[in-house]
Amino acid sequence: MSFYESLMALEQLPFTELWKECGPEDVKRALAKDKLDEEDLLALLSPAAGQHLEEMAQKAQRLTRTHFGHVMQLFTPMYVADFCVNHCTYCSFSSIYDFPRKKLTLEEVEQEAAAIASTGLRHILLLTGESRRDSPVSYVKDCVTVLRKYFSSIGIEVNPLSQEEYKELAHAGVDGLTIYQEVYHRETYEKLHVKGPKRNFRARLDAPERGCQAGFRSVNVGALLGMYDWRQEAFMAAMHARYLQDRYPGCEIGLSPPRFRPYLGSFNPESDVTDRALVQIILAYRLFLPRSGITLSTREPARLRDRLVHLGVTKMSAGVSTEVGGHTGEGGTPQFEISDSRGVPEIREMLYRSGLQPVFKDWDILAESSI
């Protein structure tokens, strides 16, 4: 059994009716509990919970400080290739777009790594377009070998791989996996992923669990908010995270709430995810999964990120470029537009002003002989 079976059962829920039936008493019941269940999560994502955001925020902040302290981990993504074989309707890297594609040589990877490391960051997320031909596991592994000289923690966000391939990368020094389902609503997923291996919903859905089984220290999941009803997508992502956390207690399971951003094409998302909705989602995540990390990216504007640091977020990106080679000034086509272009020093100062300690490194691989 995998989360796929759980998802098939969950998608039978009459969400529209359930949201309508949730009232203030359901939200208060959820707020009073220490361990929340499926019904509590529904209540916290319901329209009724919109009137209780302040109470949710107070408890979310208390839980965050209890489990994570007054700290914020910083990282940045590093794009090494934008070749992609998929046609996805919401991404600049889609195979239908004609622009000069790039793939960094290992020398260029080292230049990017040195530039990022000079900012003090020691945690990095390596990204590629989804193409086994252009960015095979061997290429990712070679990049990791270079990055290990500069970073203590290396996460990957690449196309879904087999358990054995994840093991191979873990052995090379990768300790974290980020893979978004993008859309949990299966009909919408099929509509938005027009062509390519990414159309295989099940292969993508099971990838985080393969990562857990491969031995990664951390696995991060999420939905690209805006593609379908945000309440249902947030519910499914949180249930996915709970499923993994329950079965793989030795792995840190995290959640991200990325919102759709402008890109090379003209697709407009179906669901309007307002700032208030995003706040409700983050608070619901924190209350439902008190020990899970929550990552906030530069898809969000600076003014909003500055406020959200107090409401459950534990990890932020800084000094971001979504272009291949973008950290050395010769980037390509961005995967999407970012909203917060502040560099690492500005984010660091913002966190200090907010009473938080920026963390550049909180993990290192000590068992060198095992790699």
From TrEMBL:
Keyword presence, Metal-binding: yes
**Name of the protein in question:** Thiazole biosynthesis protein ThiH
Domain Radical SAM core positions: 70-291
Necessary cofactors: [4Fe-4S] cluster
Q: Record's SUPFAM superfamilies?
A: Radical SAM enzymes
An individual GO BP term: thiamine biosynthetic process
The answer to whether UniProt assigns keyword Cytoplasm to this entry is no
* Record keywords, A-Z: 4Fe-4S, Iron, Iron-sulfur, Metal-binding, S-adenosyl-L-methionine
Q: Which PANTHER family match?
A: 2-IMINOACETATE SYNTHASE
InterPro entries (alphabetical)? Aldolase_TIM, BATS_dom, rSAM, rSAM_sf, ThiH, ThiH/NoCL/HydG-like
A GO term for molecular function: iron ion binding
